[in-house]
Known about the structure:
CATH superfamily of the largest domain: Carbon-nitrogen hydrolase
Protein name: GNAT family N-acetyltransferase
Organism: Salinimonas iocasae
InterPro entries: Acyl_CoA_acyltransferase, C-N_Hydrolase, C-N_Hydrolase_sf, GNAT_dom
Largest sheet: 9 strands, mixed
Keywords: Transferase
Number of strands: 22
GO molecular function: acyltransferase activity, transferring groups other than amino-acyl groups
Amino acid sequence: MSQDQTSVEDTEHHLELRNLRLDDYNDVKTLMDKVYVNVGGAWPYKNFKAQVNTFPDGQICIEDKGKVVAFAISVIVDYEQFGDKHSYDEITGDAYLSTHDPNGDVLYGVEVIVCPEYRGLRLGRRLYEARKELCRNLNLKSIMAGGRIPNYANYANEMSPYEYIEQVKSKDIYDPILTFQLSNGFEVKQVLTAYLPEDEASKGYATLLQWHNIYFEPDSPSLIEGKKSSARIGCIQWQMRYFNNVEELLQQAEYFVDALSDYGCDVALFPEFFNAPLMGLSPGESSIDAIWHLATYTDEILTAMSHLAVSYNINVIAGSMPVVEDDELYNVAYVCKRDGTIESQYKLHPTPHEKKDWIMKGGDSLKVFDTDFGKIGVLICYDVEFPELGRVLSEQEMQILFVPFWTDTKNGYLRVRRCAQARAIENECYVAIAGSVGNLPKVDNVDIQYGQTAVFSPSDFAFPHDAIVSETTPNTEMTLIVDLDLDKLNRLQNEGSVRNYLDRRRDLYRVDWIGNR
């Protein structure tokens, strides 16, 4: 080493700004126990784990030679759901950050702590600047925070908290927290009472602080691109009948698309394997010959359904159809949008019958579809009986889950129905199921159908008392049209009798998708 070089070990400090990691907990605990010795000390590890896992980008720290010496915890919230009169526990989800909303508009400051031995290095200012940069990068309106006023206890007998704050503003009184926040561009919006009741130094009071992001660019949706607050759903309870050719089947499909379009529906949902009557045209005698023959019609039907979606100005979920790829058979649902684009969702779990008799394979990707009426997911029949799939879609902000199904007996139907209802409640979304009815006497192994189409909602006061928006008469060909209020889902998440999304113990468990998107 030359004389003009100095190693990191030789310098007094080597500071690095970075995001917190789970293995930083011991350093964080040490800091909190030191700073909050009179206010309960450090969070348990489960809180810290939830914070880092829920919003990794919002948890920032400064380390010095490998040791965390300052940190800041943040969360994104939909501020209107809380308003200015909130407590610390309410807006932070008891410090679990269960209130985190990736689509929120405000970055809320949960905590900032600097090691007392480092307070002359302006590390707090660095953390605040990092928060501001994050706020700008995420295009959020502002940073809000509840700030303690720990010197107020010394003046509580002389003045109200309002008077105390004014004196701090005028620099007649020094408060280690409020003075710092004011010097960093924050404004006091109002006084919060019982914000942290255990904070005796502040007498339970806190300041509601705000920093405005002057670079915030509010969305200004046009009439065409605006976010819809409701959606009209059309479901088709499809009668299985013999068709002489694919043209007759498409004529029947167009009848329903036309009818639902006339009623202004945003989407038409067909059942799983709605084209199964064409299996009767197979020259082979076995069921596997019939399903592989059915796959030969898929491209033609898909093209026609996409054309119907465009010409009738309605999104069409074309139930599902068999597809052969690389000599493997799959069951695929197609989302034909009215702008002409087509997306697909493969059935992930073929039933034992489909695997054994048809040698059918499962897909390996799952995704949420962005449509002009909201975010939707599609799970084909048996897939809805696996709750992990609904949870993965819910984490991607799905609002409506569509389930095209095909069941032959009532107990098979009830499995689909009960699981669909559970998905609506646990994921706070709407679920629409559509099935087929009738008989196919000329088609081996699929000669009977049992079905009842329905739309389910979460179970709370804002929704139908039995959480059933509407349902059809069983085993009768008909349509079901319902209007769904999407804004109710947002209110439910924050104001419901129970809050499944917010109350999930993310510090204890989670569902991760490890396959393709």
